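Below is how a single chain appears once it has passed through the pipeline. First comes the sequence as given, then the structure the pipeline wrote out for it. We keep one example in the README because the format questions we get most often are answered faster by looking than by reading.
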Amino acid sequence: MSKEKPRRRLRFTSVLLIIALAVAGFAYAGQFVKLQELQQKKAHYAAIYEELKAENAELLATRDLVNDETYMERLARERFKLIKPNEYLVMPAETNDEVEDYVGVKDEDLH
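Resulting structure:
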């Protein structure tokens, strides 16, 4: 009889050890999955950060251009067809329709 008790105790201890290892394994697997997800998020946000840094540098360069008077004058002339007082806007004849639509000048007003 004395031989049966150590076997039962050994079996009980083995079962407890196996259960503890299984719980630890599941916990480790869950933490590993979380770590992988966090690393993917970190890589995603790092890429977004780099894009935003590049966009910020571009905006800072544009800000410097906006403060330049010659750039603003050229931009106003090219995009908005603005002219200075006593200047004339000269355009090819085939674009009269574009001028009428864009500037609001009719064909009879053009010289």
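The CA atoms of residues 56 and 62 lie 10 Å apart.

See the next section for the split statistics.
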